[in-house]
């Protein structure tokens, strides 16, 4: 007589769907491991070979679409997530009790798969650039600890130059900087030309990228205290249209530096400064000089308050007015949301091999000092 077999309780296979949802993370980890070990391998095997092909392809798409692809993608994704969330709730309400665990598990797998593919896309499209050779590999700047005297001297020079350039910049009835481009799209197109001009000195910055895109919902960026951001999925530089105009050209160049493959924040700031400084457009020249001055003043205020006061008091009234405008503008958005944005950005930068986190923006001062020593 054949023995009766015990039938297992009905259920569902969870292992295979879960693996299919998470395998992109494994691929991302393997890709990251290969390109995070040796800056020279990353430089030759990705940053100057594969990455330019990615930017060339994204430019074909981006140059025909004036709107921010990042903004459209984020809004569409949020709407899709909302619709699918409501749909899931309605389906759960109608489903039998026994069917609900499987439905929830399938929804979880879908979310995990989406996140996994986003991580894989990020790792393939830009993450290796965090591990490439530093910009100083090409510029040959020697970064060494700066003395207080050097920092104060550089701040004075930048302050004097800022005053000279400020006199060449247009302003509105409130005394605020007024960009002279026909519109922000024209200013963004000029930013590409400014970066192209710098590539004559540093060919590694050559290559076509989409022009910086204005973000229509910049009121959100203000709440997050973001002047701009780089969207790797379209190799797209984005900028805040509601921030002080004096900051805007520098921000465009900062984000374009990311688009050119230099992801470290201090290097992006330095590249933006060099590009603006060498521009014959007063709006760009002043913006780059002003932002470099502000970073130096910030460092000086933390090192020697009396030296900071001496330099600040020596600035022209319009330059002081621009510094106060920026401080006032961003200060009004202090709060929980801005703090959360800063913490998220800090973690993101630390995860991507920038141990100083958000303080890495200010480390541009070391590069500015290295450039100052060449003068």
Description:
The chain is mainly alpha-helical and 375 residues long. Helices cover 63% and strands 3% of the residues. The protein has a three-stranded mixed sheet with strand order 1-3-2. Strand 2 and strand 3 form a beta hairpin. Helix 10 packs across helix 11. It starts with 14 loop residues before the first helix and ends with a helix.
Strand order of the largest sheet: 1-3-2
Q: Compute the average pLDDT.
A: 91
CA-atom Rg in angstroms: 25 Å
Q: How far apart are the termini?
A: 98 Å
> What proportion of the residues form beta strands (DSSP E)?
under 5%
Q: The biggest beta sheet, please?
A: 3 strands, mixed
Helix content: 55-70%
What's the total number of strands?
3
| Number of H- or I-type helical stretches | 16
Shape: globular
Secondary-structure element pattern, one letter each: HHHHHHHHEHEEHHHHHHH
Q: Uncertain regions: pLDDT < 50 for 5+ in a row?
A: 5-9
Structural class: mainly alpha
Query: What is the domain tally?
Result: 2
List the helices and strands and how they pair.
Elements: H1 15-35, H2 39-47, H3 50-62, H4 69-94, H5 100-125, H6 136-139, H7 148-166, H8 184-199, E1 213-215, H9 218-223, E2 228-231, E3 236-240, H10 248-259, H11 265-277, H12 282-303, H13 305-313, H14 317-331, H15 336-351, H16 364-372
Parallel strand pairs: 1-3
Antiparallel strand pairs: 2-3
Helix pairs in contact: 1-5, 7-12, 7-13, 8-10, 8-11, 10-11, 11-12, 11-16, 12-13
């Amino acid at each position: 007589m054949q023995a009766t077999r015990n039938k297992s309780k009905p259920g569902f296979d969870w292992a295979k769907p879960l693996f299919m949802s998470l395998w992109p993370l494994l691929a991302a980890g393997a890709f990251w491991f290969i390109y995070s070990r040796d800056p020279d391998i990353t430089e030759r095997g990705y940053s100057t070979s594969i990455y330019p092909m990615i930017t060339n392809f994204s430019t074909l798409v981006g140059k025909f679409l004036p709107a921010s692809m990042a903004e459209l993608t984020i809004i569409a994704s949020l709407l899709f997530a909302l619709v699918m969330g409501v749909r899931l709730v309605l389906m759960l309400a109608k489903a039998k009790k026994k069917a609900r665990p499987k439905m929830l598990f399938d929804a979880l797998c879908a979310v995990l798969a989406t996140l996994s593919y986003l991580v894989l896309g990020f790792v393939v499209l830009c993450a290796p650039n965090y591990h490439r050779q530093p910009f100083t590999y090409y510029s040959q700047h020697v970064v060494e600890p700066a003395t207080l005297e050097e920092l104060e001297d550089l701040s004075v020079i930048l302050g004097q130059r800022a005053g000279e350039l400020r006199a060449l910049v247009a302003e509105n009835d409130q005394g605020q900087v007024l960009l002279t481009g026909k519109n922000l799209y024209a200013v963004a197109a000029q930013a590409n030309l400014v970066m192209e001009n710098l590539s004559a000195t540093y060919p590694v910055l050559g290559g076509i990228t989409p022009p910086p895109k204005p973000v229509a919902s910049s009121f959100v960026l203000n709440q997050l205290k973001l002047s701009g951001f780089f969207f790797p999925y379209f190799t797209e530089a984005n900028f805040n249209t509601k921030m002080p105009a004096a900051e805007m050209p520098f921000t465009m160049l900062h984000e374009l530096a990311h688009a050119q493959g230099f992801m470290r924040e201090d290097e992006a700031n330095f590249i933006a400064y060099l590009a603006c400084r060498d521009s014959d457009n007063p709006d760009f020249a002043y913006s780059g000089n002003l932002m470099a001055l502000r970073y130096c003043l910030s460092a000086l205020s933390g090192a020697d308050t009396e030296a900071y006061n001496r330099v600040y008091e020596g600035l022209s009234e319009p330059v002081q007015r621009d510094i106060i405008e920026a401080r006032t503008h961003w200060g009004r958005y202090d709060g929980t949301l801005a703090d959360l944005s800063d913490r998220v950005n800090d973690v993101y930068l630390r995860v991507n091999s920038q141990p100083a986190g958000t303080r890495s923006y200010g480390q541009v001062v070391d590069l500015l000092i290295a450039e100052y020593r060449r003068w």
